[in-house]
């Protein structure tokens, strides 16, 4: 087991120290909640939900104590209905994560959560010397599928700016 050097810190600690105050000011959440969201939401909702912000109540209650906030969660499409039915359990999980009654209500906003996968553009065919060079490299390949795959790869690599000469 290796021990960290005195004074050495992990990059995640440094970035969390920088990002947490900004997230707390703008959205009322921290990186720990975002990082642990898949465990908190569970396998049913981890892929289709994302915490957006926590709206903390201004001031305290009548006794001057803390008042729980409202957590806004982005949810995709029809899964929002299922999330509505599971709100009670999710609030309990969130509060147990924080260690106190931080959230008393969930507000669900329907919007896309997962990053849309961008389709890669087909590169333009090679011209001139680059096309002849690629054909020469593929000369001994007999398998058609392998030949097509290598041609696509070669076109993409050799077709980048500056490489097509």
From TrEMBL:
Per UniProt, what is one Pfam family of this protein?
Answer: DciA
Entry's InterPro entries?
DciA-like (IPR007922), DUF1159 (IPR010593)
Supply the name of the protein.
DUF721 domain-containing protein
The organism encoding this protein is Rhizobium laguerreae
């Amino acid at each position: 087991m290796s021990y960290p050097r005195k004074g050495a810190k992990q990059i995640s600690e440094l970035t969390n120290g920088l990002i947490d105050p900004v997230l707390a000011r703008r959205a009322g959440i921290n990186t720990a909640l975002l990082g642990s969201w898949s465990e908190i939401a569970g396998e049913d909702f981890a892929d289709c939900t994302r915490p957006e912000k926590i709206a903390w109540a201004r001031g305290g209650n009548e006794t001057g104590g803390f008042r729980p906030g409202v957590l806004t969660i982005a949810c995709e499409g029809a899964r929002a209905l299922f999330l509505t039915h599971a709100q009670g359990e999710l609030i309990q999980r969130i509060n147990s994560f924080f260690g106190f009654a931080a959230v008393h209500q969930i507000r669900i906003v329907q919007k896309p959560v997962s990053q849309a996968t961008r389709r890669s553009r087909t590169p333009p065919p090679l011209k001139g010397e680059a096309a002849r060079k690629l054909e020469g490299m593929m000369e001994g390949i007999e398998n058609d599928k392998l030949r097509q795959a290598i041609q696509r790869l070669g076109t993409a690599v050799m077709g980048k700016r500056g490489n097509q000469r």
